[in-house]
Design a protein that fits this description.
The protein is mostly beta strands and about 260 residues long. It has one domain: YmcC-like fold, CATH 2.40.360. Helix content is about 5%, strand content about 50%. It is built from one helix and 16 strands. The protein has a 16-stranded antiparallel sheet that branches. The two termini are about 30 Å apart.
């Protein structure tokens, strides 16, 4: 499975290849775009008026490793914005090129807004093989963020055929607390952001594993320690930047480097 979009940091710990994504469920109705308690707002304002709901808007993300080496660069363009369920949905065409010279990949990301919450369909941001399915409850942000606020967990599961056996990797992104409001500067400019630092937990299962192998896998998981992300969310854009920490060390950074409205 190859990660070809700005959400590389969310799933960087999975093994990868280059084929086409096959989510196992339709994108949730916009009315389910989040569970955070916020004031009512018009879907044409707040998150519905952000960059990702402006047809024709373009932006570039670049992800680098801990040494600053390019992993992937993704060119994105908002190609479709529609009204749905009293809110809005958008589709974003993405083309990714890789730092190691692999063939570029293309895909489509999906967002929804109910006026008070932005929902990101995680499954649409991952390319997988024909034998892989991804289910996701979505990744949501309230349009009325405040420092100290807790955001809903995000969960997704990757099911794959590995050596003729069914394997599942479940990921939970939780403890999503808004830690600060601050200005962040990237090559795209300076933006007001909310800094959110969630914890990432993964668990895996495979048919036919012996108790001994399962025990060794659990030991390896404990040795890895806690994995976290730092997310800078800009309400006028989307996620501006993310850093992934594995065992307390920066593994990757992804940020928007250019914007064209």
């Amino acid at each position: 499975m190859k990660l070809s979009t700005p959400f590389l940091l969310l799933i960087a710990f999975l093994s990868c290849n280059n084929d086409v994504a096959k989510p196992d469920a339709a994108f949730p109705d916009v009315s389910q775009a989040g569970k955070a308690k916020t004031a009512k707002a018009s879907a044409t304002g707040d998150c519905g008026s952000t960059l990702i709901f402006k047809k024709g808007a373009k932006f570039t993300n670049k992800a680098v490793d801990a040494n600053g080496k390019l992993i992937v660069s993704t060119e994105s363009e908002v190609i479709r914005v529609s009204d749905a369920g009293g809110g809005k949905q958008s589709e974003i065409a993405m083309t990714s090129t890789f730092g190691d010279g692999r063939e570029p990949t293309a895909g489509t990301g999906r967002y929804a807004c109910d006026g008070t919450n932005l929902l990101i369909d995680l499954s649409s941001f991952v390319t997988t093989s024909e034998n892989t399915k991804i289910s996701s409850a979505g990744f949501s942000f309230s349009s009325k963020l405040e420092v100290g606020q807790s955001l809903p967990d995000a969960n997704y599961t990757v099911s794959m055929n590995y050596g003729g056996k069914e394997m599942q990797i479940a990921t939970r992104i939780h403890e999503r607390k808004v830690e600060a409001k601050e200005k962040l500067t990237t090559a795209a400019g300076s933006f007001d952001c909310y800094r959110i630092v969630p914890t990432i937990e993964t668990s895996s299962s495979m048919a036919g594993l012996t108790p001994e192998v399962k025990e060794e896998l659990e030991k390896a998981k404990k040795r890895m320690g806690k994995n976290t992300m730092t997310v800078w969310y800009a309400p006028s854009l989307t996620i501006l930047a993310m850093e992934l920490f594995i065992s307390g060390k920066v593994a990757m950074r992804n940020e928007i480097t250019s914007i064209s409205k």
